[in-house]
């Protein structure tokens, strides 16, 4: 098991959260807690840079959906950047590739 780390940096368009490690049942509350503390303004874009994500289970997917709800409630956008292939496969299988805005690499998070 790899502990989840979430680092934040702010850009002109909104916050970027670099998510690394395992986003699973034990670790998903870490991301959700960070989202609860995150203030977004209308028109901003929250970017989740998932390039360091090693594992994501259904609890992790639920945390990603919670991030989307958090952004929508603030009238902001959410982008998942650099989702690893195994996560992309799951998102595609369950149709969430049609729900999330996906970017193939983290350059959007510069």
Task: Write the topology of this structure.
Blueprint: E1 5-11, E2 14-23, H1 28-37, E3 45-56, H2 58-73, E4 77-81, H3 85-93, E5 101-103
Parallel strand pairs: 2-3, 3-4, 4-5
Antiparallel strand pairs: 1-2
Helix pairs in contact: 1-2
Architecture overview:
It is a single chain. The protein is built from 3 helices and 5 strands. The protein is an alpha/beta fold. It has a 5-stranded mixed sheet, covered by helices on one side. Helix 1 runs parallel beside helix 2. The protein is globular and about 35 Å long.
**Uncertain stretches:** none
**Computed CA radius of gyration, to the nearest angstrom:** 13 Å
Instruction: Count the DSSP helices.
Output: 3
Question: What is the terminal-to-terminal distance?
Answer: 29 Å
Instruction: Give the overall pLDDT as a whole number.
Output: 95
Beta percentage is: 25-35%
Main beta sheet strand tally, sense and closure: 5 strands, mixed
Using the alpha-carbon principal axes, give the shape.
Answer: globular
Structural class by secondary-structure content: alpha/beta
Order of helices and strands: EEHEHEHE
Total strands: 5
Helix content: 25-40%
């Amino acid at each position: 098991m790899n502990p989840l780390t979430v680092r934040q940096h702010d850009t002109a368009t909104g916050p970027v959260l670099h998510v690394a490690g395992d986003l699973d049942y034990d670790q998903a509350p870490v991301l959700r807690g960070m989202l609860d503390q995150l203030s977004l303004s209308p028109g901003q874009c929250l970017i989740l840079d998932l390039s360091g994500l090693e594992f994501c289970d259904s609890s992790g997917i639920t945390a990603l959906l919670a991030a989307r709800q958090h952004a929508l409630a603030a009238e902001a956008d959410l982008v998942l950047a650099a989702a690893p292939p195994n996560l992309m496969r799951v998102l595609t299988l369950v149709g969430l590739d049609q729900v999330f805005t996906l970017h193939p690499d983290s350059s959007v998070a510069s």
